[in-house]
Specification:
- This protein has 87 residues and is α+β, with helices and mostly antiparallel strands.
- Helix content is 30%, strand content 23%.
- The chain has a domain of 51 residues.
- Helix 2 links the parallel strand 2 and strand 3.
- The radius of gyration is 13 Å and the shape is globular.
- This is BolA protein family transcriptional regulator.
- One of its GO terms (biological process) is iron-sulfur cluster assembly.
């Protein structure tokens, strides 16, 4: 488990998107034996008012933008569940 990467992801997303709730899950254990092993596989569940008026693709772009400094060297795969408050 990459606690440092999880904490860095949390910090970057918190700074960029001021989430109401945020969960970052290291899913690297599900990807043992495939090409991106060791680079980081994460699931981000985030609720933020910053997503208001954004399409699902727009929401993902905001998340990827916030994490750009970690891509692709520290994050190999990223699953995103991005919602606005109340969804």
């Amino acid at each position: 488990m990459s606690v440092e990467k999880v904490e860095r992801i949390r910090a970057l997303l918190t700074g960029a998107l001021a989430p109401e709730s945020l969960e970052v899950i290291d899913e690297g254990h599900k990807h043992v034996g495939h090409g991106g092993e060791g680079k980081g596989h994460f699931l981000v569940k985030i609720v933020s008012a910053a997503f208001a008026g954004q399409s699902p693709i727009g929401r993902h772009r905001l998340v990827y933008g916030a994490l750009a400094s970690m891509m692709p060297d520290e994050i190999h795969a990223l699953a995103i569940e991005a919602k606005v408050p109340g969804e």
